[in-house]
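Tokens in:
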């Protein structure tokens, strides 16, 4: 069974039918464990709305979301918060690092409410994985934009979540730094991480296994790039 199953997801903002915005309209897809998916589309096409639904943060108006056979929006609010902590990692364009906490403390945050035994050790290992093993005690203000992104990514994956969600994670970075951060996503993908990333960046599109294109709240294209590539190589 697929890791993520989105069935006929629709999202309408506003109650008044006249002025209601149909941000998503009957979106369906399945995502297998280990896929790297780039979600693309013009501004206003519903990308962030879709990510919020996938992130268990915003119930769809219609449709269902199943992750690891769990009906996400069938869960109570409290159970859904537990689900989010256990299953999902998030990287936003605004990194939302806590400015007065060090890199290590920022990465330890998601572990505070878990019963992990060696929180500090796990956070250190994760910062090491993203190449910041020597900057554990820096504050965000003492790090470059790329390093801050790495801290945010480390914080997102420290719990080892089955799904990593990212909304334009390199949108505000210069191209060289953006490339380095995308290399890190690629590395995580190679290590088996399932990634769903909203992006306009040609490089992440190249790294992705699959591209889902949204327009006016609908999927207009859903192509597996890597399958195509290997099929082409076999010919
Ligand atoms: P994207 O991320 O692709 O730019 P969004 O998902 O943010 O698109 O928005 C899709 C549509 O829904 C847009 O028309 C946007 O204006 C509208 N929208 C998004 N969030 C809200 C909201 N909270 N209230 C009303 N309309 C919204
Ligand atoms: Mg958006």
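Residues out:
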């Amino acid at each position: 069974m697929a890791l993520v199953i989105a069935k006929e997801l629709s999202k309408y903002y506003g109650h008044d039918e006249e002025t209601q915005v149909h941000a998503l309209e009957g979106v369906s897809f399945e995502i297998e464990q280990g896929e790297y998916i780039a979600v693309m589309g013009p501004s206003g096409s519903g990308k962030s709305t879709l990510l919020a639904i996938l992130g268990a943060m915003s119930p769809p108006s219609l449709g269902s979301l199943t992750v690891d056979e769990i009906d996400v929006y069938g869960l109570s609010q409290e159970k859904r918060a537990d689900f989010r902590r256990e299953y999902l990692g998030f990287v936003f364009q605004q990194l939302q690092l806590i400015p007065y906490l060090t890199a290590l403390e920022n990465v330890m945050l998601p572990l505070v409410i878990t019963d992990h035994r060696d929180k500090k050790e796990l956070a250190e290992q994760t910062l090491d994985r993203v190449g910041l093993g020597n900057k554990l005690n820096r504050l965000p203000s003492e790090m470059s934009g790329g390093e801050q992104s790495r801290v945010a990514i480390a914080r997102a994956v420290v719990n080892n979540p089955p799904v990593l969600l990212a909304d334009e994670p390199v949108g505000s970075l210069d191209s060289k730094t953006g490339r380095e951060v995308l290399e890190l996503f690629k590395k995580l993908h190679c290590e088996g991480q399932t990634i769903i990333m909203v992006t306009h960046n040609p490089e992440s599109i190249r790294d992705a296994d699959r591209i889902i294109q949204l327009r006016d709240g609908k999927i207009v294209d859903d192509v597996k790039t890597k399958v195509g590539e290997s099929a082409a190589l076999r010919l």
